[in-house]
Amino acid sequence: MPVLRIEAEGLTTSFRYPHFLVGRQPTFRMPPPATIYGHICSAVGAFVDPSEVRFAYTFTHDGIVDDLELLHMATIGTGRMPNDRTLPRNLDVTTNPVPREVLLFPHLTLYLDAPLQFDRFAAAFREPRYAVVLGRSQDLMSYRRVDVVELEQAEMAYFQATLLPWSYRSRTRAGVGVTMPRFIDPNDRRRVIWSPFVVLEDRARLANAAEAGETGKQFITRAAPGERIWVDPMAPTFRALQRAVVWHDFVGTREDGPHFLSPTGQNLG
Q: Taking the complete model, does pTM exceed 0.85, yes or no?
């Protein structure tokens, strides 16, 4: 299975929880699917059809720190300017320092399966249209490698530093369940598809249910006997096992868990 693989790294990144408006701003431990969609569109220079591309990734960082961000809160002004009473005050601005979680030295390996857009995406990531960022606009990234890899199927594999569909929740005790924005409609940014996922930072190995036993946190049980998993033969191995590549889509049509659609007009912060 030929896919496009992009390796990117940077100094900092932060993936904002959208409903935290005051106080400390935490970060998702991995980029939400909606962030990946925006990253693809930034490289291409246009909004791409979300139904024509699937993605998978591994994401690592070297640590988490708190940084102070100065927020500027603007409201409609009243009265007159203090230095010139003939001029109306159109804005009132207050500042507020807020601690924000930041991930240090992020590294992203992104896999794209887009048969109808393969050549276009390959060219775009080699010569991206806009500045390469991941997370906030100031979180610059660099593409270190863009190539085509041939994925293989294997009966044994390991999973690590990746995002899993919610259907994996019943198959492992590893990872943390989290609800993320899957897709934000470019024509109506308040229309958001939300989906639950499993954020897997530690390593887990594919195994039969009997083998997992009491130490199930180190294993992911098979969905069915003889299940075969896509793996990247070029990725680092662990005990002769190859790293799994787990696919996601942006439209939420797969039977991998519930999806929630924000109604148009809902204030998401």
A: yes
